[in-house]
Amino acid sequence: AAMPLIAKARRVVVVSVKEDGSEALGDAVEDVVRELAWNGVAAEPHILARDGRSTADVLFAEAASRGVDLMVMGAYGHRYLREALFGGCTQRAIEAARCPVFLMH
After folding, report:
1. Comparing C-alpha atoms, which of 92, 39, 42 is closest to residue 63?
2. pLDDT tens, residue by residue, 61-80
């Protein structure tokens, strides 16, 4: 859904946050980069470590350091109790984004 916006971007970076103790997400990120290339968009893959921070905080810090104009994120929720206790990246993006965020479920 965001492809018309992505196609006009000067620079596209595909970012994923590696959960503490999990395997690297290189294959998933590379799949997105290949899909974008198939659509004529050159994108850079980038995997970030959480280092004890929330996924949303890592993403927003990276966005701020790169001066992004728009973040495109997949959006989904967890069960209500888990979201209420631990929060979620989507909810955090809605509440605390420092740049425009395109969310798609």
Report:
1. 92
2. 999 999 999 999 877 655 55
